[in-house]
Q: What sequence folds into this?
């Protein structure tokens, strides 16, 4: 299910300016998973976003 949500978030942000895409994808993915929070909730939104931003920064170096 997480992979499906990732694909939906990716595809729905393709038409946005590149500098907005990552943040929209992360927020959309988190919102999708929270709809099924009993099965998919692992972190609070701020924790998740901070972790993913750090991972993105490490990957772009």
A:
């Amino acid at each position: 299910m997480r992979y499906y949500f990732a694909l939906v978030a990716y595809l729905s942000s393709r038409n946005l300016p590149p500098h907005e895409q990552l943040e929209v994808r992360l927020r959309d993915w988190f919102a999708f998973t929270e709809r099924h929070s009993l099965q998919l909730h692992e972190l609070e939104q701020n924790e998740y976003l901070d972790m993913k931003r750090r991972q993105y920064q490490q990957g772009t170096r």
Observations:
- The two ends are 30 Å apart (CA to CA).
- The chain has a mean pLDDT of 93.
